[in-house]
Amino acid sequence: MIKLVAFFLVIYFVVCQSCNDNPCDASYSCCDTSAFGPLCYLPAEHSCANNVLCQATERVCASQCYNPSQYQCVNGSLCGVTEKVCGGQCYSESSHTCFDGVLCGANENICSGQCFDRSTHRCFGENLLCGINENTCLNEGVVQCYNPTEQKCLNDTLCAVDEDICFNNNTIQCYNPRNQTCSDIGLCAAEERTCNGQCYNPALYTCFDGIMCGATEGICAGQCYDPNTFVCDSGKLCQSNERLCGTEQCYNINEFTCVNGQVLPNDQVNQ
Q1: Burial of residue 54, with CB atoms counted within 10 A of its CB: 0-12 exposed, 13-18 middle, 19 or more buried
Q2: What distances in angstroms separate CA 154 from CA 21, 135, 190, 241, one per listed residue?
Q3: Interior angle at CA 124, CA 123 and CA 127, nearest 5
Q4: What pLDDT does 258 receive?
Q5: What does the pLDDT look like over 156-191, one tens digit per residue?
Q6: Looking at the DSSP assignment, which residues form a beta bridge with residue 172?
Q7: N- to C-terminal Cα distance for the chain?
Q8: What residue spans define the domains of the chain?
Q9: Which one of 47, 105, 159, 185 is separated from 196 by 20 to 30 angstroms, measured CA to CA?
Q10: Is the dihedral of CA 162, 167, 169, 170 positive or negative?
Q11: Which helix (H) or strand (E) holds 110?
């Protein structure tokens, strides 16, 4: 800017005279400059364009003089003669690339308006930028990038690389088969089984047709019992020293005997 002002001062005081009030000499023309007003100039040495006075070999670009052998005016931007314009910026095609007004590096591409290095990233669907070694997964309705060395995509669900998926009640869950198991009711611990909608540890419990009892217990007519304390006789629980007489009555086998459905003392039976 300082050089430009100095240039016009030289023109004004040395080369030109004002043509505001007095006409220029016959060999001069008048240029109504925006910076200094009307000035006389010699066309063999200077040129006037867009109210800017420049050297005869120069052109004007947005009120700025330039040498057309070194520069070019592109949409009001002054660039090198071999350069192009992208989004108002000058660039060289050897070092940059223009994508719809976005200036990126020569080795870059564009994804959703963002420049990226093609050696380290890639674009999915023109709007999702992922790492060069990443894949995509429609996880919970949203497309996401993932590292296949750490995760995997199963039925549009992102899980850890060592996990599987378990379907239950229209839901999908990731689980680790080393410490969990997938059952008809969902996820249980790896050592567990299912009984009537519940997970259970077979080391602690036993399942009898949907009824869960302790591991050392038995079942009698749908009821869990301790075999050390009770006995199941024809579907009825009696004390361990008892048996069933008929259909309802338990009796002490050490003191009584069942005869034709009746409980009699041993001393009467032995007479």
Answers
A1: buried
A2: 87, 13, 21, 59
A3: 75
A4: 92
A5: 999 999 999 999 888 899 999 999 999 988 999 999
A6: 167
A7: 140
A8: 1-72, 82-132, 216-271
A9: 159
A10: positive
A11: strand 108-111
Q: Which uninterrupted H or E stretch holds 149?
A: none
Kindly indicate the confidence band of residue 76, based on its pLDDT and cuts at 50, 70 and 90. confident
243: nearest Cα among 271, 263, 228, 217 = 263
Instruction: Dig out the tokens for 126 from the structure.
Output: 């023109």
pLDDT of residue 169: 80
C-alpha to C-alpha distance for 168 and 176, rounded to whole angstroms: 16
Tracing tokens 């080391």 back to the chain, one arrives at 203
157 exposure class (CB count in 10 Å sphere: 0-12, 13-18, 19+): middle
* Chain centroid, CA 227 distance in Å: 58
What is the rounded distance in angstroms from the CA atom of residue 234 to the CA atom of residue 247?
Answer: 8
CA dihedral sign of residues 59, 64, 67, 69: negative
Nearest-angstrom CA–CA distance, 209 and 264: 37
Give the tokens for residue 4. Answer: 């430009």
- pTM tops 0.85: no
Stated as kind and residue range, the H or E segment containing 69 is none
How far, in Å, CA of 51 to CA of 37, rounded? 9
DSSP characters for 202-234? TTTEEEETTEEEETT-EEETTEEE-TTTEEEET
Rounded-to-integer distance, Cα 125 and Cα 122, Å: 10
Given a contact cutoff of 8 angstroms between Cβ atoms, the answer to whether 150 and 162 are in contact is: no
Contacts of 188 (CB under 8 A, 6+ apart): 180, 181, 194, 199
Q: Are 108 and 95 in contact (CB under 8 A)?
A: no
Phi then psi for 120, rounded to 5 degrees? Answer: -120, -15
Q: Kindly state the DSSP code that residue 15 receives in the 8-state scheme.
A: I
